[in-house]
Amino acid sequence: MDLEKIKSKKSIKELLEFGIINIDKPSNPTSFNVSDFVHRTLKEFGIRKTSHFGTLDPKVTGVLPVALNRGCKLTGFFIGEDKEYVGIMRMHEDVSQKKIEKAIKKKFTGVIKQTPPKKSRVKRVEREREIKRFEILEQDGKDFVFIAEVQGGTYIRKLIDDLGKELGIGAHMLELRRIRAGIFEEDGEDNGYPSVNLYDFEKAVEEFKKGDEGALRKIIIPGEIVSELYEVLEIKSSSVKKALTGKPLEKSDFVDLKKDIEKEEIVCIFCDDDFIEMAKVVKDKYFFSKPEFVFQKTQN
């Protein structure tokens, strides 16, 4: 989908109704605090609710996408995507970089088993998580700068603690910054939507209050960006009303179904440039897909 084309057709009201802002979370506030701040700042412009895509610890900074209004319905479709971090870990005793890298290669690369830390809100049961990249970038005495690309739901602080135990010397995390959460990046190199700090976000809102929507429009990401994660299928215009009333769709409702779509796969359904719904492929006797989230347009 041409996201910029879709965005250019929308009013600022439509973007606020179904949008996402890629916030650069500062240290200290919780992820909820940041989401709530966005909510309060935009409340007078019709923002009823906000939600963030994946919690960051208060001291952790970086990429924190915050959904607006009906964009919140997309949360479950984004959470669980891979995350990327840069950070500093401190070893409790002197150790060579080579020895750390050997331990990482042996026990902390690929699929590992991890038990959530005691302070986490999830059940403390061992689970598998994939470590796609874990590299040491720089050493300064007992401090090591690292980069890690991991499966969503991986606890980096626990990863560092477990590494210290494996080395028999102990370790803890000094600093951590998330530079990517799925398709949302710090620099926006791939999709043109870099993270924005709270100061620049506030400044954009202040300009909007004075009648200039340019800065705010620039930082709002259309909810249709979900199409970058899931297969896009197009339905016929004659089937739009049927879809918008939440009815399952048949093969005959689609423009082209030559693509090899698997049963149980989540797909993104459009009619031309109009986002219609997120759906699950069922391929049963009567229907091809059933809706997971239907996007009903509001009256302007």
Q: Might you state the CATH topology name of the largest domain?
A: Pseudouridine synthase
Percent of residues in beta strands? 25-35%
**What is the share of helical residues?**
25-40%
* Major β-sheet profile: 11 strands, mixed
Average residue pLDDT: 93
Class by SSE composition: alpha+beta
How many helices? The count is: 9
Give a count of the beta strands, DSSP E runs of length 2 or more. Answer: 15
Count of all domains: 3
Q: What's the CATH C level of the largest domain? A: Alpha Beta
N-to-C series of helices and strands = HHEHEEHEHEEEHEEEHHEEHEEE
User: Radius of gyration, rounded?
Assistant: 22 Å
CATH superfamily of the largest domain: Pseudouridine synthase
Low-confidence stretches: none
